[in-house]
């Protein structure tokens, strides 16, 4: 190490000990001390980006892929403002993310200095925690807490603010244990009660959410569904959690579910909401399960007490890891009674009809659904599909078969500009997987400049751009609500 062990070294050492092996940044003079210390951490891959929004999206995607906090570093003021989209996306998508922001000198704080922002005010309502360090020795302990907060309960974003004049001082080498929180499982008595509820239900249904996106999660979900023979509907943009060609797959909760699916959902008598927040999209604007009190018996399992009962009261509110709960229930119930076969067959019939590829109807070009079909017909079982926001992606969500091994990277937040950065992060994280990015012309023009990283790092990514020369999602709503009066799109 060429320089003394500084507060910036201490911060990076804590992150490295927590498993952070890559950071995404746009350099800035307000965090020169951290940039200098990075030289002494060759085990941390420093990815230089072209825009803070792109850097933030890459870090959010990386956090989703690894389960460890994705880390972005930006300068104060303009840099932090550009990166705000990543904080919002990480909060909406429940992804562990740490944003490091350089700041004006500690002695100048709250004097409205050049490019100064109060980041507690700026990010306080969307980040899980915002902390502005005031002393050099606080950098390491703040980093340790940031990792813990970002990865505990409902994962999400943390913002660490680093004044430029406290990054270079000598500090002791930090020692932190960095143990992940362990979410418990219910008692044997509760497991027996839950088992009885599942096996006595005539029309049970699983709503599976993003908490299963972890090592062993998908396998636990599949084993649980097969053991109890319960149909599985995945939540918003989580199609890759459960094999789409499995007889128990019942589709997903999208932006507008068809009437026949909603009718099937309403018939259920037991809903197991596992690893999901019951927000407005997943519940179809709080129709299923209904806001306040569900019509069905509701088992809600999530590793964060704040989420349980937030919008709908659960009959069985379980603050637990859904993967561990699924495994425990399988072990606790060796020979369960399966629900009526007709219930499963009706879900299978719906799924097969709903996911049947449409025929080409346009006479003046190729419909994008046909492009998606051609891609999926040729994609292997180790393919990652990275999507931007927009109506162009609708055929992927509805028809594309996410079979075992395929992965979907798309923003639950609906953030344009996510596609290209997420493809880059995916290719960096696993060079053996096939990475295909589908993006509209609007999203491509937002963060498309980041694809220069694919050239620099020789990342074999396929980019497919759907160009319709309009902001298609907004135009669709515009024409529906204000016919013949389009503007801005």
Question: Which structural traits does this protein have?
Answer:
about 500 residues, 6-stranded parallel beta sheet, 17 helices
Brief write-up:
Helix content is 36%, strand content 17%. It has 489 residues and is α/β, with parallel strands linked by helices.
Structural summary, described in words:
- This protein is α/β, with parallel strands linked by helices.
- The protein has helices spanning 7-17, 32-38, 52-66, 78-93, 119-123, 138-151, 188-200, 217-228, 259-267, 322-332, 341-354, 368-378, 394-399, 419-429, 441-447, 452-456, 472-481; strands spanning 22-25, 45-48, 70-74, 97-103, 129-132, 157-163, 204-208, 232-234, 249-252, 270-274, 292-293, 297-302, 312-313, 316-319, 383-387, 407-409, 434-440, 461-466.
- Helix 1 packs across helix 2 (32-38), helix 3 (52-66) runs parallel beside helix 4 and helix 8 (217-228) packs parallel to helix 10.
- The longest helix has 16 residues, at 78-93.
- The protein is globular and about 70 Å long.
- 49% of the residues are buried.
Biggest sheet architecture: 6 strands, parallel
Rg calc: 24 Å
Describe the strand arrangement of the main beta sheet, using strand numbers: 2-1-3-4-6-5
Please provide the count of β strands: 18
Cα distance spanning the termini: 54 Å
Level of helix content? 25-40%
Number of helices: 17
The structural class is alpha/beta
Low-confidence stretches: none
Mean pLDDT: 93
Backbone shape: globular
Question: What portion of residues belong to β-strands?
Answer: 15-25%
């Amino acid at each position: 190490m060429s320089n003394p062990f500084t507060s910036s070294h201490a911060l990076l050492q804590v992150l490295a000990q927590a498993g952070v092996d890559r950071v995404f940044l746009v350099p800035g003079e307000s965090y020169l001390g951290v940039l200098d210390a990075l030289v002494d951490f060759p085990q941390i891959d420093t990815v230089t980006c072209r825009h803070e929004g792109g850097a933030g999206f890459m870090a959010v995607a990386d956090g989703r892929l690894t389960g460890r906090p994705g880390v972005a570093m930006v300068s104060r003021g303009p840099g932090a403002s550009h990166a705000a989209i990543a904080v919002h996306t990480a909060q909406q998508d429940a992804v562990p993310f740490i944003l490091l922001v350089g700041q004006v000198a500690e002695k100048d704080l709250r004097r409205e200095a050049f490019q100064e922002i109060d980041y507690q005010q700026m990010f306080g309502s969307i980040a899980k925690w915002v902390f502005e360090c005031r002393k050099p020795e606080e950098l390491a302990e703040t980093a340790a807490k940031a990792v813990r907060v970002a990865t505990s309960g409902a994962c999400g974003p943390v913002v660490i603010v680093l004044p430029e004049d406290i990054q270079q001082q000598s500090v002791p080498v930090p020692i932190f244990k960095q143990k992940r929180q362990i979410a418990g499982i219910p008692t044997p008595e509760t497991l027996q009660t839950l088992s009885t509820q599942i096996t006595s239900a005539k029309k049970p249904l699983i709503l599976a959410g993003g908490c299963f996106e972890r090592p062993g999660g998908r396998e636990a979900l599949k084993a649980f569904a097969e053991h109890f023979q319960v149909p599985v509907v995945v939540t918003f943009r989580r199609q890759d959690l459960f094999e789409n060609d499995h007889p128990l797959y019942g589709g997903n909760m999208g932006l507008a579910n068809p009437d026949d699916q909603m009718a099937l959902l309403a018939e259920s008598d037991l809903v197991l909401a596992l690893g999901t927040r019951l927000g407005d999209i997943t519940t179809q604007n709080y129709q299923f399960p209904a806001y306040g009190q569900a019509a069905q018996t509701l088992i809600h399992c999530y590793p964060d007490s704040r989420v349980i009962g937030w919008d709908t009261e659960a009959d069985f509110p379980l603050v637990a890891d859904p993967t561990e709960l699924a495994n425990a229930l399988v072990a606790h119930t060796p020979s369960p009674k399966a629900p009526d076969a007709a219930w499963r067959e009706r879900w299978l019939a719906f799924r097969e009809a709903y996911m049947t590829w449409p025929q080409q109807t346009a006479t003046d070009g190729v419909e994008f659904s046909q492009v998606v079909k051609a891609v999926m017909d040729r994609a292997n079982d180790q393919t990652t599909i990275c999507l931007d926001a927009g109506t162009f992606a609708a055929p992927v969500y509805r028809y594309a078969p996410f079979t075992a091994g395929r992965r979907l990277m798309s923003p639950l937040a609906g953030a344009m500009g996510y596609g290209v950065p997420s493809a880059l992060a995916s290719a960096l994280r696993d060079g053996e997987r096939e990475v295909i990015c589908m993006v509209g012309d609007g999203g491509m023009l937002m963060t498309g400049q980041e694809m220069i990283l694919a050239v620099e790092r020789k990342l074999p990514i396929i980019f497919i751009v759907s160009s319709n020369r309009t902001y298609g999602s907004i135009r669709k709503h515009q024409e529906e609500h204000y016919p013949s009066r389009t503007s801005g799109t």
